[in-house]
Write a structure and sequence with these properties.
The protein has 131 residues and is α+β, with helices and mostly antiparallel strands. The protein has a single domain (9-123), classed as Alpha-Beta Barrel (ADP-ribosylation fold). The protein contains three helices and seven strands, in the order βββαββαββα. Strands 1-4-7-2 form a four-stranded antiparallel sheet. Strands 3-6-5 form a three-stranded antiparallel sheet. The longest helix has 12 residues, at 112-123. It starts with 8 loop residues before the first strand and ends in an 8-residue tail after the last helix.
Amino acid sequence: MAVLDAGPFYHGTKAHLRPGDLLTAGHISNYDRKVVMNHIYFTALSKGAGLAAEIARGDGRPRVYLVEPTGEIENDPNVTDKKFPGNPTRSYRSRQPLKIIDELERWEPFDEEFIRNLRSRIETGMGDIVN
């Protein structure tokens, strides 16, 4: 499936980053400490990146960054092939770094109860992560 998006792209995390920083693969997952990530995941939806930031492990505050891929990107097969054909979640991944362009100050939040329930499902191994 071809990537149909030109961006802008967003990445959600609790890490404090600055413009010019690079996000790279090979680090522990934001959601499962037993998993080392072979890709960097991102989305063209700021709300989706906000969800990823809200449920990420860590003590920092949730942050959404505007990012720029530095190499090839592909549709996230964990979402597009398994759950949502056609990539309506506009979720992507890359083996090459993502460059931090800026931090978004605001994004559309999810309901707090939804976030609590999703975190609980993730902690018990029952939840799949979208981005």
